[in-house]
Amino acid sequence: MSSCQSQIGAPQRSSNDQCDHERVQYLLGRTATPDLLEQARSQAGAQSARLLRPDQVVTLEFDGGRLNIHTDKNLKIERLTCG
Predict the structure, then answer these.
(1) Are 50 and 40 in contact (CB under 8 A)?
(2) What pLDDT score does 21 carry?
(3) Given a cut of 90, is residue 71 above it in pLDDT?
(4) What pairing do the DSSP bridges indicate for beta strands 66-71 and 77-82?
(5) How far apart are the first and last CA of the chain?
(6) Dist. CA 79–CA 70, nearest whole Å
(7) Measuring CA to CA, which residue among 69, 79, 58 is closest to residue 35?
(8) b/e per residue, 14-53, with b = 16+ CB within 10 A?
(9) Which among 5, 15, 21, 46 is placed 20 to 30 Å from 65, CA to CA?
(10) CA-CA distances (angstroms) from residue 5 to 1, 14, 33, 62?
(11) pLDDT tens across 20-46, in order?
């Protein structure tokens, strides 16, 4: 019963609000900049985006509308995921 209750207040997203990281895979190997972050967010259809550097502490909550841009220490994009 508690699992049903935990979903009552959860916001419902339409399929249009979901991030699609496949759309931005062409950015692999490029250097992350604020403009590129916004471009990637928009092209992926994400509500938000975050830059993740090596050894950075991050929150682990899943957000299907968020684009994660994983970089190396020099901000070279190594991986793009949603969540």
Answers:
(1) no
(2) 97
(3) yes
(4) antiparallel
(5) 26
(6) 5
(7) 69
(8) eeeeebebebbeebeeeebeeebbeebbeebbbeebbbbe
(9) 5
(10) 6, 21, 41, 19
(11) 999 999 999 999 999 999 999 999 999
- Give CB contacts under 8 A, 24+ apart, made by 73-78: 74/31, 75/31, 75/32, 75/33, 75/51, 76/29, 76/30, 76/31, 76/32, 77/27, 77/28, 77/29, 77/30, 77/31, 77/32, 78/28
User: Is 37 in a helix, a strand, or coil?
Assistant: helix
Task: Give me 16's structure tokens.
Answer: 């249009």
Residue 57 is encoded by which pair of tokens?
């502490």
- When pLDDT is cut at 50, 70 and 90, the band that residue 60 belongs to is confident
